[in-house]
């Protein structure tokens, strides 16, 4: 399930008594290609049980997987960080480019105009999920809800409307990469082997929110008990996991480098930490190439998506982004022996 919206100023983003804006945005360094480890957390490699006894058929069965040492972004990449990349390189995201007439000959010129997917809610409570989102011309990372929206007060929000190739371009600018699915899940677990959530086994509650997810019946109404009602949160508003990583559950989905296939392919997982890059396969759309996205988003509700668990995974189409999809990056390099993850 892909996508989200609305806005709040950073200073006013936390309205609940248990949530304080000052607790958000932990030490966000300026991205710099000359300092590729800035903002990264070292994770010592090891063996772990990837996947779960499947609550969704694509999540398992669990398999023992080994990952090497790597460094990973402490937070999701923010609007401010991505803006620095665009300023330095002149990069134009996929959502800001028109579709190719050669690749999409069946679409009109208007249909090929720059656009992206935005959560529209369910005002009429339609049972058809295709009506809950819409393609909005002009929507992009600069205008998350489309024309008339902007990034004022959202510098510390996770950047969204980022396609897979956009995320990879940012990572390569810094001499980094996107995490494999195995690296991402290993980091998300934070040393809690087999735990249901990134913080342990206890279900989240309004009294002690652990992540930015959807509370209530999706998509009818989000009560906002976690402090954010149907919108992203600035990065770092919730407690970090055991490795010091923020928002590994909820907020926005995150790209991985792996092609999507249902279930975990044992030989490929053990060899590379993820499925081979040969080709993806989504039984729902067998002709559409997709990558694995992880972590869930602020749209994940227990009654519908329930994919803010570390084992959860879903396919993300490579030809676009959405208003609830972002990313973080990794650097594969040795880490100190004292680092977490060993």
Put the structure in a nutshell.
The protein is an alpha+beta fold and 342 residues long. It has a single domain, classed as Alpha-Beta Complex (paralog of FGE (formylglycine-generating enzyme)). The chain has 4 helices and 11 strands; from the N terminus they run ββββαββααβαββββ.
Provide the domain count.
Answer: 1
Query: Can you list the strand order of the major beta sheet?
Result: 9-8-7-10
**What structural class results from the helix and strand content?**
alpha+beta
CATH topology: paralog of FGE (formylglycine-generating enzyme)
Helix content: 10-25%
Q: Provide mean pLDDT, rounded.
A: 85
- Name the overall outline: globular
Over all CA atoms, what is the radius of gyration?
A: 19 Å
Work out the helix count: 4
SSE order, one letter for each helix or strand:
EEEEHEEHHEHEEEE
Strand fraction equals 5-15%
- The low-confidence parts are 1-22
What is the highest CATH level, the class? Alpha Beta
How would you describe the overall organization of this protein?
- This protein is of the alpha+beta class.
- Helix content is about 10%, strand content about 15%.
- The strands form 4 sheets. Strands 9-8-7-10 form a 4-stranded mixed beta sheet.
- Residues about 1-20 have low confidence and may be disordered.
- The chain has a single domain (about 1-340), classed as Alpha-Beta Complex (paralog of FGE (formylglycine-generating enzyme)), CATH 3.90.1580.
- It has helices at about 80-90, 165-175, 180-190, 265-270, and strands spanning about 40-45, 45-50, 65, 70-75, 115-120, 135, 255-260, 290-295, 315, 325, 330.
